[in-house]
Design a protein that fits this description.
alpha+beta; single chain; globular
Length: 72
């Protein structure tokens, strides 16, 4: 059975400029380096965001895990 993948979203209070603020891995020199990006398009989140399982996301309680299926 495959574990469901999702993304880590940053909850930003209103008023906000973008619908989604999410974690990305920019990977510098082969090392994982994380930063944020933002977009109004859920397709950008699916294509660009760092993906992890809900179990892995529990290590980062400051972010909200959302399944990829729930973004569209």
């Amino acid at each position: 059975m495959t574990k469901k993948l999702g993304v880590l979203l940053v909850d930003v209070p209103e008023p906000k400029l973008f619908c989604y603020m999410y974690i990305i891995d920019v990977g510098i020199c082969g090392k994982p380096i994380y930063t944020t990006n933002e977009s109004n398009e859920w397709e950008d989140v699916i294509n660009e965001a760092y993906k992890c399982t809900q179990e892995e996301a529990q290590k980062y309680p400051q972010f909200r895990w959302v399944a990829l299926d729930d973004l569209s």
